[in-house]
Amino acid sequence: MPTHVHKRVPKSPACGRRGPPRPSRALLGPRAQRSHPHLGLGLRSLPLRGTRASLPRPRASPSLAPPLAAPCPAHGPHPIPTSLRPSLLPASPTAPGPRPPGLALSPAKPGARRAPPRLLLSRGSLDAGSAWSARQRRGGAVWRLWRAAGRGRGEVAGAVLVTGGDSCRAVPMLRFPTCFPSFRVVGEKQLPQEIIFLVWSPKRDLIALANTAGEVLLHRLASFHRVWSFPPNENTGKEVTCLAWRPDGKLLAFALADTKKIVLCDVEKPESLHSFSVEAPVSCMHWMEVTVESSVLTSFYNAEDESNLLLPKLPTLPKNYSNTSKIFSEENSDEIIKLLGDVRLNILVLGGSSGFIELYAYGMFKIARVTGIAGTCLALCLSSDLKSLSVVTEVSTSGASEVSYFQLETNLLYSFLPEVTRMARKFTHISALLQEKNTTTSVQDEFMHLLLWGKASAELQTLLMNQLTVKGLKKLGQSIESSYSSIQKLVISHLQSGSESLLYHLSELKGMASWKQKYEPLGLDAAGIEDAITAVGSFILKANELLQVIDSSMKNFKAFFRWLYVAMLRMTEDHVLPELNKMTQKDITFVAEFLTEHFNEAPDLYNRKGKYFNVERVGQYLKDEDDDLVSPPNTEGNQWYDFLQNSSYLKESPLLFPYYPRKSLHFVKRRMENIIDQCLQKPADVIGKSMNQAICIPLYRDTRSEDSTRRLFKFPFLWNNKTSNLHYLLFTILEDSLYKMCILRRHTDISQSVSNGLIAIKFGSFTYATTEKVRRSIYSCLDAQFYDDETVTVVLKDTVGREGRDRLLVQLPLSLVYNSEDSAEYQFTGTYSTRLDEQCSAIPTRTMHFEKHWRLLESMKAQYVAGNGFRKVSCVLSSNLRHVRVFEMDIDDEWELDESSDEEEEAGNKPVKIKEEVLSESETENQQAGAAAFAPEIVIKVEKLDPELDS
């Protein structure tokens, strides 16, 4: 039975009547009236006195303060979980201990009669806004209950009735789980599509997901809210295989298997900033940032890029021409800065089938292709000091697959890091400029390819009057003039300025290549760069030729359409304005030239797509065909052209750019791109060949056959510790010891060794914080990832536990795994040349026991995990790939911070302390008489709950 503690409520001066009557059990509802067997905290009734408590205003994420539970001298102390005691009142009236901010416990006076404790609330003010008014605006215990619920520490079970003045409200009480959770749930969601990949942003509270429908989703930590979605499309692809964040968290890269493309997407909006094709489908990727520091690098990082000073900014492409490349789209003309990011070098490493491994500087330009590795890449990791590359591959043979670990030397990248960085930035500028001019929405769509048939006859008159009409002719002329003006502006502002930028960066590359001591080992070839410069010059010549053709055609078209318009007006016997009748000799010449160019029969066109007359001259320059121009420019009478053709010395001079008068602009552009690609390909080949295989460790043989999409989450998992310069590999030897997780670690410098290179982890027991009971079972490791450099997040399955309570989320500190005191006892006694699953007995095993930093995952078949130590969160995915639960992992530290902030806030507001005193009956009556003069009494009635714990 619940105990009832109440006091008479004085009259209210405002209404002249007494307060509410003594509350009955009916007000609590049936849920609060019955005892709850699963509650880990028993409370008795506490009378509260005083006005509104002097408590801090609730914040967005208030710290946890559990419901107040005072020890009862008559009945003994209530069972309070050990993990809660630091933030509650002491376990006994005389035992001093830490108390929550603003609470002070006064012991009973000697000889005084023992009475139930009271919580006295002194004067103060509290205005907590809408969040507080939804609960109860009086009472420290109610405030603490509300804060505990807001922190997600417990579940609602039972109710607390609060009465005071003219108000009477029920506030939910909390049920605390048996194991006080070390991690707090901050989000949970059921997703419509199966998730095949997820990865946290390294710097923000964002997580990127890829599902089976081909979508790339970006969710925010708060309530797992979706920020944007990148749907599958024809240009990019529909089968996403892996994701990777740039180290600064501003770009997201994802690979598509059906189109063999890599897409770089902006984190702010779902747009492709850059994309490129690869030779094989990519199965894994890793994006790293160089952390090496030196005086040469520091001076280079601090130096300002001169191209920003010498080159004009590239203008913005109209939206119609930027469907495939968003680098210079809309209002952002500085997207290249976003793509390059910081000056510090970052490298995107791609791995695929048949030993496909490539390295891309700044995620855009290929600087190395690795050869000599067989099989499909399962994981790879390039060390931040650029000394080694770790790769895990899988080679399938006769129905089974053998998994091996490789470590490759990358000393060339490390030794020439400043040169590689400078060269990579130049290459990235060139790659971006080439794609900027490679928009597939061709400008020829803006032109109307005019084909006029026959001579001026009755048929032509019928055509002009019935089909074209005067209004249509006028509209057609305006459209052609507008289109010509648009393409003229695009050529001048984009092709010419972009070509000048290409020439600048290629010329700087040529100067770098001439410094053979620095750049020749990297494969930078001065002769190849010279060919690329020549190709860019030819492209500039062809662009200038197009401008001349546009200028000439615009004059002829204007004169022709004006003359034809007047002729059609006369056919309809309409009035012709006097100014239209005026035609100078120059206008007549323009019309004659137009008729000569476009209406002469061309027998050589009889077999070309049914076109019997010359097409409009500008459109032919924009066709992506290898055929010669139908109407090439007339070079007769050009003295400079004749002089060059007759001079054998100037004809072969490297100072003059070659000229292709009978080729289209697209042909010259495609030729230029091929030459530049060949020029930039050589360094990738040279650097790739320098990466030699130094270590090969066969791990295990896998005979399971699973869906390939689900293998994306499986072991092994690679990690690079940037502080200690170590490579870590997490894996399980599937057949022999599934209940063990193996950790292999190697130094990034292959010449150095490391102790405890291989160790197996066995998960032994887990201690409940509330009951101190020990849970022992056989646990298998489902998934594991590095949370940060010092911690591994693991999902375990209790092989004998009941369903719904058989999955655990564990934080494994590496400091306990690699204990220096007993490191000599855990040395691998086998050989790395033999497969590890054949020598399991030689692998040292350490059994781990956990008293904290673990949580039981109830009502969820957890299978996979993704952690982020920077944001202190982890995301758990169920085995059906649809159920997601997000945890905040580091709540203990935050609790201490929040408590200190509460103290500071209370000190700033200078409230009167809340005191809890154990009073005698006489003292109680005197105290009540004094208090009744200034404040109504607040009575909190709590249903007595069964303190028995559910284990």
From TrEMBL:
Residues 718-888 form the Anaphase-promoting complex subunit 4 C-terminal half WD40 domain. GO terms for cellular component: anaphase-promoting complex. The keyword DNA-binding does not apply. Residues 38-63 have a biased composition (Low complexity). It comes from the Eukaryota. GO terms for biological process: anaphase-promoting complex-dependent catabolic process; cell division. Pathway: Protein modification; protein ubiquitination. Its main location: nucleus. Residues 421-574 form the Anaphase-promoting complex subunit 4 long domain. Residues 1-116, 896-931 are annotated as: Disordered. Keywords: Cell cycle, Cell division, Isopeptide bond, Mitosis, Nucleus, Phosphoprotein, Ubl conjugation, Ubl conjugation pathway. Residues 199-289 form the Anaphase-promoting complex subunit 4-like WD40 domain. Residues 64-80 have a biased composition (Pro residues). Residues 896-906 have a biased composition (Acidic residues). It is found in: Nucleus. SUPFAM superfamilies: WD40 repeat-like. It holds the Pfam family WD40_APC4_C-half. Residues 1-10 have a biased composition (Basic residues). Component of the anaphase promoting complex/cyclosome (APC/C), a cell cycle-regulated E3 ubiquitin ligase that controls progression through mitosis and the G1 phase of the cell cycle. The APC/C complex acts by mediating ubiquitination and subsequent degradation of target proteins: it mainly mediates the formation of 'Lys-11'-linked polyubiquitin chains and, to a lower extent, the formation of 'Lys-48'- and 'Lys-63'-linked polyubiquitin chains. The APC/C complex catalyzes assembly of branched 'Lys-11'-/'Lys-48'-linked branched ubiquitin chains on target proteins. Belongs to the APC4 family. This is Anaphase-promoting complex subunit 4. It comes from Macaca mulatta (Rhesus macaque).
